[in-house]
Write a structure and sequence with these properties.
Elements lengths: L1 H42 L36 E6 L6 E6 L2 E6 L10 E7 L17 E6 L12 H4 L4 E4 L16 H5 L7 H7 L6 E3 L10 H8 L5 E3 L22 H8 L3 E5 L10 H9 L2 E5 L15 E2 L6 H12 L2 H5 L3 H4 L6 H9 L12 H21 L29 H29 L6 H10 L1
Parallel strand pairs: 1-3, 1-4, 4-5, 5-6, 7-8, 7-9, 9-10, 10-11
Antiparallel strand pairs: 2-3
Helix pairs in contact: 5-8, 13-14
EC number: 2.4.1.-
Subcellular location: Endoplasmic reticulum membrane
Enzyme class: transferase
Amino acid sequence: MIRMRRKILWASCFCFASAFFLVLTLQVITELGNSENKVSVISSVHSSPLKPGERHDFHFKKQELHSSFKTESDVNHYPVLLWWSPLTGETRRFSQCGEDICFFTINKTYQHNEMTRAFLFYGTDFSIDSLPLPRKEYHDWALFHEESPKNNYKLFHEASITLFNHTATFSRHSHLPLTTQYLEGVEVLKSLRFMIPLQMKNSLRKRLAPVVYVQSDCNPPSDRDSYVRELMCHIEVDSYGECLHNRDLPQHLRNPSAMDDGNFLKILAQYKFILAFENAICEDYITEKLWRPLKLGVVPVYFGSPSIVDWLPSNKSAILVSSFSHPRDLARYIKTLDTNDEEYESYLQWKLKGDISNPRLLRAMKERKWGVQDVTQDNYIDTFECMVCNRVWENIRRKEKGWLPQRWEAQVNHLSCPKPEAFWFSSSNPGWISLQKMWIPSFEQSKKEAWALRHLVEKNKNFTAEEFWMLVFKE
């Protein structure tokens, strides 16, 4: 009986070992097949067919997928994506984007490398003084720009924005929209963590104004300080920032880095209304100025994106400055809400019920491929890089199949930011002076520069600063 059990045991072990080696062999054969397919695709990265003697130099090795890519020769296997105006301090790295691998670098010596397929630009640092020209047919340009035109007006014109094949901006028309870049998630809007009961807010009104304003970037293109200054003539506003300052924060909260401090948020949460005024007026340009009061359970008084109703959690969650012909009328309406609890709370019902009824906002948050302050998700920079990497590889594969490349381009109306305009009642204010002397001339000048830039880029040659400025002055 014992011998029989031993024979059965040995037979079982033999069968298991045979099955294991069979599965392993099949896996190796499959991987080799995949590797051969990858080799044929990679060879098409080059602008011209490889010479017979060069083919071995670009052999794709399976184990490189999981290696640390330490040798310079590894670059020859993958498309190079060059950050022309760096966003991060990394000098070189390989990134895996799904099944695709790309080499990212800030080293400009790769400009003429035969494996370079895309140039990545950070909008704030985009400069016409140095561009990767001449631009070859297979060179894509990609733009990452989460900021408003205040940071670089040249990009906010049709002539310049349409130079880019791939975009990540605040616009819904972007290839990677960053419209919700300041919103962590739907749940933080519903959260009642900082919300103070209305009865307590009414009690706090004995020592606090009904409205609070916190801004230290004064006299921007939106002319917001002129509006707030006029509003202060008709209603009490507590202003904690450097702009129109009339109330002090505790010493430990006066640093700009304290804007997300819990104690600072608790101070803001005591108010009934927060002035949420953007620094520029652009479609879909929405910052924390809107999301912060919504998260705190305070009613935002919003001035900024003309398309803001597309992004609010409900159709009655914010007071829109554009609905009032003069700050005096806005002040009168705020005073009415301040003395009518039922009317005031109608702006907070969506939050008290946890009911976000805006399908566009819900869909955008659900489909978003990146996270905000969430270590479990990719950030939007990594997602942008992988979008470009995947698209580069898509065209590599199309070329391998003998198809024409897919051509992407930013839409003409991509960044809808009109010329800065002063409020009609602000002619004697510093904001009006700033607009007349700086922002309006900057806008007009940037428009000329954008058209000059496009003309010279389309000529596909390196140009000197003298050539550029001569063309600008001709406009």
